[in-house]
Amino acid sequence: MLRVGVDVGGTNTDAAVMEGPRLLGACKSPTTPDVTGGIVASVSAALAAAQLPAAALQAVMIGTTHFTNALVERKRLAPVAVVRLALPATTGVLPYADWPADLRPAVGDHVYLVGGGHEYDGRVLTPLDEAALVKAAHDMKARGLRQAALVGVFAPVNPAAELRAAEVLCQEHPDLQLSLSHRLGGIGLLERENAAILNAALMPEAVRVTAALEDAMHRLGLAVPLYISQNDGTLMAPREIGQYPVLTFASGPTNSMRGAAFLTGLQDALVVDIGGTTSDVGVLARGFPRQAGMAVRLAGVRTNFRMPDLLAIGLGGGSLVREGADGTVAIGPDSVGYKLTEEALVFGGRTLTATDLAVAAGRAEIGDRSRVAHLKPALVDAGLRRMRQMLEAAIDRVKTSAEPVPVVLVGGGAVLVGDELAGASQVIRPEQAGCANAIGASIAQVSGSFDSILTYSEAGRAKALDEARAAAIERAVAAGAAPASVSIYDIEEMPMAYLPGGGTRVVVKAVGELALEGAK
Amino acid sequence: MSRLITIDDIADIAAGAAVLGCGGGGDPYVGALMTQQTMRGAPPVPLVAAADVPDDALVVAIAGIGAPPVLIEKIANGSESELALRHLEKHLGRRADYLMSAEVGGLNSLYPLQVAAKVGLPVVDADGMGRAFPKLEMTSFHIFGVPVTPMALVNERGDLMLMQTTSDQQAEHFVKHLAVGMGGIMSSAGFAQSGADVKRAAVPGTLSICQDVGRALREARERRRDPFAALLAAMRATDYYRHAHLIFEGKVVDVERRITGRWSMGQARIEGPAGVLELAVQNELLVARINGRTAAIVPDLLAVLDEDTAQAITAESLRYGQRVRVLAASVPPIMRSEAALRVWGPQAFGIDEPFVPIETLVQRHAA
Question: Which of A22, A133, A163, B201 has the most beta carbons within 10 angstroms of its beta carbon?
């Protein structure tokens, strides 16, 4: 399949034209405020490099951190109605209980607590209070609210209350856009509610970005399917991004890691992405990033998204280098960042950066080497040694066993490091490492997942797990996977203590190859 | 001696309670938010030393009972414990004068404070174990003949049960089945006792220790000092936990969980420069073995702490790859008596080895 992967980052938009496992052409260009311009420029240039017409493409895959940035900057957020289906439970902790004070005004304070929800075993907690929902819908209309987060107790176990409540609300308030919590996260009411609120707040922006992406396709003369990268690196259709923008939050680093896997052919490795200010270190397990087990804070809000488990350290190409009186050298964590090409010594600037040390040591040809010729070899050596130590410590922390593992270096700062690293069985620098993120976006896989609490005692464990597997596979196919290609990637069973015959939380993930014809 | 507990103290108490929770007792996060919501605008809660409670006062213990993981999804509405208290009072024909924690480890350090803020009662600075344990009869109250029942149990719907059993073991037996029907988690009021009983049967001073330990961790973080040094100093400043040691550091390399009956059983393996530490888990962390040698054993306290923050990690949150240090500490002497060890010594958890105090084990290994 001939396709183009695009990564829209905060600074650059990368594009990579791929055929099967082969990279045919790539390009990097600045991200534009309208998103569209940068995509059009990058994709056009990548096609030119591949010597292909746009009409040859069969699909486009785009990864973007746009929504993460919108949230961090607290910009372009819509006011949100929070509807919690839970009475008489949960009022002990009201929505927004643990939010940063500066983020709350951006989404308003519109909370509706309604009878509904389920028990841990899926039984009804309280019959859905439809009259209260009708009243809430009218109140939202009066307040001019058009986005709502709908959160039912134990919705991941049984989404019935959320689904019915969505029908009632939409009937009364047809303009309402809903974020259903069971689509966004697993067990953990507050974390899932927070995710649904963030998602609802980002929806208008998501609609705008989806339009921009479609506009870019139009301007490129492309009439082929468009897909968006999710947090786990698999794809979703653009109409989904309009509904679930938060599912793209971690796609940037995920695509980098998966691109690294793709370029090296490694399924299990450690990936180090060295940027201008920080390095992200993560583990690839069977081609996917290992995911964080704990709650993740996004812009200060606790959520339970499944995000890649990354360790970020303050080491990048622009990291400041300081020499202590005793001859020791400190690197970072502050950095000249995107001003590297103005402030680094090799570019005629006055700041000694990590990049300058790499150039002085002959590891990289960047800027004007003569401008770092005066640096003392002892300083250069000590600095390079310090960087190596920082990376080795990070690698050791992230590794899951004492065995040496292959380490893949990607990102512009990969030149900072030599080919010997403690804990690494080998150090690999893929040739096209600079566009690993765009290549990662182009990997055409789709997934489906199942996350619920099952009670084994009724049907028996084997049968319950079979049904969970089938549900995950069915969801992967519904998301566009070729049925024959779908397999189970992971099954996690987490028993719930203290309850006899009590539930076990089962999380199943199925992954398959994108079926272009079958994609909905 | 008494102190006043305000909304600003809750986070500290929760952090300290997580350390004393020995990996169990429930994640105090939701409990802290609930207590803070109740305390907002309410007067501070007096925390009264056990010695200062009049002998004829009525003291009631408040606790959440059931599966803590249910609480992170079906959060309580905040009135359950008050209902349970009122019902127990009606049954006893007398109003409570003080509330108390049955278990300061984990979530149940906060339940009594939440109700106290609501109903305006003081809380006794004491509990029944100075850590967390998984069964109702595993309290110092039981050892000294203060029964669990009568106990009132309430869920968020307001379903209410009054339990009167012939033994604490029977109470435990009924409660686990009741928890299923009641929706997984309940609030309880029980262990009713006199001030004289408290002085005889409770472990005094434990709630303020929770607060002190949590405060030490927070202050170390705020001042960018070593949180482990601060934690050890805070523990060693107490009578109970003064034999506190960081027995191991390393990385979690394996976690295995299974359910046996209603218990979450498991093993965790941590590898570090000193070799391998193996943890046996039954809801709480029971025993730590370093390179095959027992390094700490129940009822002494064990906690797995995050390497960066020194915050306690619950057994259910243990994951592959976490960098941790393992803390072991002595428990109050009342918890190590022969009668006490029969209830929660290693044999009570099916571990076929004798209890050896941490201070002895540390010396033995150093030799």
Answer: A133
